[in-house]
Input
Amino acid sequence: MIIVMCGPGGVGKGTVVARLVAADPRLWLSRSWTTRVQRPGEADDAYTYVTREQFERRIADGGFLEHAEFLGNLYGTPWPDADDTRDVVLEIDVQGAAQVLERSPDALFILLEPPSAEVQAERLRGRGDPPEQAERRIAVAQGELAEGRRLGAICIVNDDLDRTVAECERLIADARRAPLG
Ligand code: 5GP
Output
């Protein structure tokens, strides 16, 4: 099963996904490629950091399950290992989610929503992005949420981390019992 986790920057996706994967040996987190530069304090393995040239070569080789451009940087999911029987979690943007759903309509698609635009803006400004980048992310957030809902995501407001993780775990368990499609 593919689990797609979406939500605008600053909503806490990374934290939720890390908790899910740490607690469930049947899940693994796909590591994306990006042309974005590493943020101060960001883990070395948060992404595979590559040049635009390397990224474009991999697109040409058909090496991505999905890829998208977000605020001037490229992001993509390498094809998951077909022999891995665990469920894969993709932490991606809504453009990528649309591509995954087209190929795999039975993917579990979860959209995390911020409790408020103010909370989200505060988190984004506090995490080391240049201020101008943070403002651009805040500006695109509403459109991302609307697009995610339009694509049929199951929406969870991330106002309490433990509750959000529990809700995601319940959705994953349900999907394992009764795959969609
Ligand atoms: P950030 O620069 O904040 O790490 O990521 C920006 C956006 O790109 C976030 O919404 C993040 O989830 C998304 N993203 C990360 N990896 C991928 C990927 O492989 N594909 C797509 N389509 N989006 C990604």
